[in-house]
Amino acid sequence: MQVEEHVALARYTTIGTGGPARWFARPDSTTELQAHLRWAREREARVEVVGLGSNLLVHDDGVDALVLKLSGELAAAHVEGDLLVMGGGAPNAVGLHRARAAGLGGFEFASAIPGTAGGGVRMNAGAYGRDWRDVLVDAVVVDADGARTLGPEELDLSYRHSGLAPGEVVAGVRFGLEPSTPDAVKAIAAELLAQRKSTQPTNKRTFGSVFKNPKEGPGAGRMIEECGLKGHRIGGAVVSPRHANFIENAGGATSADCIALMAEARRRVHERFGVELEHEVQFLGPLELPPL
Ligand SMILES: Cc1cc2nc3c(=O)[nH]c(=O)nc-3n(C[C@H](O)[C@H](O)[C@H](O)COP(=O)(O)OP(=O)(O)OC[C@H]3O[C@@H](n4cnc5c(N)ncnc54)[C@H](O)[C@@H]3O)c2cc1C
User: Fold this and answer.
1) In this structure, which residue's CA is closest to atom 5 in ligand 1?
2) Catalytic status, residue 160
3) What separation in Å is there between the alpha carbon of 55 and the centre of ligand 1?
């Protein structure tokens, strides 16, 4: 078991901001993961997980926690019959590749979500009318006491929400897919990706959607745009000119810049529409938005 100290986390996030983890480790099996979780419990240390950091904002001063990055067999994927079996740290792109090669369809929507299977459980990630809840058979959830296999109901999955408690780590996920052909999977994924590229800043450093869409009324991006905030800049962070519910790192951005921009967008949307936007991006470290 190897634990490093003061490891810079910015390179483990897609926005590229934030300070170091006090402790950092890369468990590559469930046994090793449990050993790390017990190590943290003995020190009363918080445990955090980074997937591909694609919906993550890390405090500029870093995180006083053991930060885990799943690797090895916990980041691999394979197919068993009509099941896609992924380690919690396996990238969605790898899962889709395996499914396609095996002629299994139903996971194409994940091609536009640049995260991992485990991060997808935590966020109940979704796109184009489907989310993890629709395809997840079960997930192995590990904490310092052991491992449990939970279905979608027990995981309490709903729009960008799961019932995972702090310190619970998704070590593996099984998705139930349907027979298709490699060509059909490839064509659907390509079509979804093309749609994505035409509306979102996929070639910029972002952390995906900043805010969740409210249950009713216009989406978060539409409201932020109508407040005239597209292109608005604080420090190195800019409200994307392409899609207002994205923040781009235009060079040298800090997490504090992103928070200031989020606070401004949230305040202006509240003033104009009376809507309290809830952030979708997850915070690592003591980050918070000021009250409205
Ligand atoms: C360009 C772009 C487009 C995006 N489009 C979409 C979209 O269409 N739909 C969508 O839903 N999301 C989208 N996202 C956001 C993001 O990709 C998803 O939320 C994704 O599921 C996050 O996965 P991750 O592995 O990167 O998690 P991270 O961003 O690393 O972490 C997110 C949260 O999950 C937790 N977590 C990560 N791994 C685990 C694990 N193994 N066990 C327990 N907790 C874990 C983290 O602690 C954190 O709280 C987009 C992001 C970008 C940059």
Assistant:
1) 113
2) yes
3) 5
Q: pLDDT tens digit string along 126-168? A: 999 999 999 999 999 999 999 999 999 999 999 999 999 999 9
Q: Which residue, 76, 70, 72, 77, is CA-closest to 33? A: 70
The reported pTM is: 0.97
CA distance 245 to 223: 9
Our answer on whether the CB atom of 120 is closer than 6 Å to any ligand 1 atom is yes
123 Cα to the center of ligand 1, angstroms: 6
For residue 169, give both structure tokens: 């780590």
Catalytic residue among 108, 225, 248, 280: 280
pLDDT of residue 65: 98
What does the longest C-alpha to C-alpha distance in the chain come to? Answer: 53
CA of 125 to the centre of ligand 1 (A): 7
